[in-house]
Amino acid sequence: MIPWCNPLGVTIPWCNPLDVMIPWCNPLDVMIPWCNPLDVMIPWCNTLDVMIPLCNPLGVMIPWCNPLDVMIPWCNPLDVMIPWCNPLDVMIPWCNPLDVMIPLCNPLDVMIPLCNLLDVMIPWCNLFLQPQVVDIDQMIQERLKKVDRLRHSLQLLKNSCVREVRESQKVFSALVDSMEKSHKAVVTAIEERQGEEERVVEKLVKELEQEIQQLRNGDTDLGPCHSQQSHDELCGGGGQKSVAVSTTSTTGYSERRDWSKVSMETDPCMGVTRRAVSDLMDMVKGELRRLSRAELKKIQKYTVDISLSPKTAHAFLSVSDDRKQVRHTDKHQEVPDNPKRFDRVANVLGRESFSSGRFYWEVEVGEKIEWNLGVARQSINRKGKFTVSPANGFWTLSLKSGGQYVANTSPIVTPVGLEQKPRKVGVFLDYVEGRVSFYCAETGVHIHTFTDSFTDRLHPLFSPGRQHGGRNIAPLIISTSFCSI
Fold first, then answer.
1. Which region ranges are annotated with the description Disordered (predicted)?
2. For labelling alongside 189, which of 30, 161, 171, 482 has CA 20 to 30 A away?
3. 91 has a pLDDT exceeding 90
4. Domain boundaries of the chain, sorted by first residue
């Protein structure tokens, strides 16, 4: 149905291309007067090939090949919309004959501006078919290359896993072997100590038995005297022999061991197992240091360039021009307030934010006596006081002014023991695995790892700590060079 907007309100209905019904004065020479002076002539050539010439000063011809699916709604020649359905799904909107734009709604997203409308012909049967084929081939090739890259990455992943399995087998076999050897050494030491003590006891028992026998022999000698003589005789003149024997016996007894001072420890192996475990732990710590160094070397390939965001810095913090250093000034600076700036806690965030992947950076802490480093959620509260903890969106490691290193866990902090004070701290974020790890960059020693689940974007976080009378005036410096470990 084609409603024509003209003063007479004439409509032209048709049913199908082969049976066109045109209630008009002459179906072979139809003149349609429009609402504007651009008289349009529509001659019907045949039912299979409809030609609509627009009789305007530009003489634009628009042929199409398939009248079976044609819709021509328009109100006036200055605002013509011709939608049709064909394999390319072409839509041709225009506003006036002087500025025609033809967007093709197809996968190629081609835009055809008609710069010269003088006698322009636009056939719509197989438009841009060849470029589309070329682009599809290119898209196929790009996807094939992506498949190859993914398979190559998968092979690298498999190789890495195989190496890690072999390394773990080697390490744990060595640990198990060391544990077994240590256990055997402990058992041997205990058995040897037990044997030594048994020999000592046997010697003492033998000595005691000899003395007991001697004493019994002495009692036997004195037995008849005691039985035949009275107490007065033993103590009087007639008891001289008895007194002599008694004196001799007493003298011999005094020369023997004072058994009251002889004792035996029943726990001769006390501490043997602990010392063995301690030695084993020293060996494990050495292996841990080796593994940490190897791990950090792998992690360093995820190094990113970090810079500070001055608009987030607390008013007491001074950020360097290159945005690589931050120090505490102990005085309030005139800075514009904004929702991103910390107003109570002396923090500053990094400009970069992360929502996937792995990232590593190092920070020089030098001889500072107080600092705080880590990552924070983009949506953290930056106004007022708050506790730096994972519950509030912070995963950080701190050096307190008393010299204690702590991981700022919740509900209470976790003390971290370090054998060596780090001058440079490495921070590693594995967003997908939900880990934030800290390393002593000089030695490669692992300090602490937070494990959590991340949903928000994360920013690096820095806090240089208060000046403490000038003892902590040095800045935190984002490092651009890395330690050789």
1. 220-242
2. 171
3. no
4. 1-129, 162-220+270-294, 303-478
Q: Check if the beta carbon of residue 461 is closer than 8 Å to that of residue 382.
A: no
Angle at 361 between CA 360 and CA 363, to 5 degrees: 150
- Tell me the CATH number for domain 303-478: 2.60.120.920
Residue 78 makes CB contacts below 8 A (sequence gap 6+) with 36, 95, 96, 97
Residue 363 pLDDT exceeds 90: yes
Which residues have C-beta within 8 Å of that of residue 239, sequence separation ≥ 6? Answer: 229, 233
Give the per-residue pLDDT at 270: 86
- 7 pLDDT band, cuts 50/70/90, is very low
The kind and range of the H/E element at 204 are helix 129-228
Are 108 and 118 spatial neighbours (Cβ–Cβ below 8 Å)? Answer: no
Half-sphere exposure of 427 (CA within 13 A, CB side): 28
pLDDT at residue 151, as a whole number:
92
CA–CA distance, 466 with 475 (Å, rounded to integer): 11
**Neighbouring C-beta atoms of residue 280, cutoff 10 Å:** 17
| Threshold 0.70, pTM exceeds | no
3-class DSSP assignment, residue 430: strand
- Give the residue among 481, 428, 472, 421 at the shortest CA–CA distance from 450: 428
Written as six digits, the tokens of 232 are 């007065």
* Residue 296, pLDDT above cutoff 70: yes
Of 253, 468, 439, the C-alpha closest to 363 is 439
Instruction: Return the closest-CA partner of residue 472 out of 354, 368, 338, 371.
Output: 368
Which is nearest to 483 in space by CA: 431, 433, 441? 441
- Distance, in Å, from the CA atom of 5 to the CA atom of 35, rounded to the nearest integer, reads 7
What's the half-sphere exposure (Cβ side, CA atoms, 13 Å) at 147? 6
Those residues whose C-beta lies under 8 Å from the C-beta of residue 430, and which sit 6 or more positions away, are 358, 436, 437
Which residue reads 């701290």 in tokens?
425
Q: Is 427 helix (H, G, I), strand (E, B) or coil?
A: strand
Is 364 a residue whose pLDDT tops 90?
yes
Task: Over range 278-285, report the average pLDDT.
Answer: 89
**Residue corresponding to tokens 């041709």:** 92
392: which residues sit within 8 A by CB, 6+ positions away?
380, 381, 386, 410
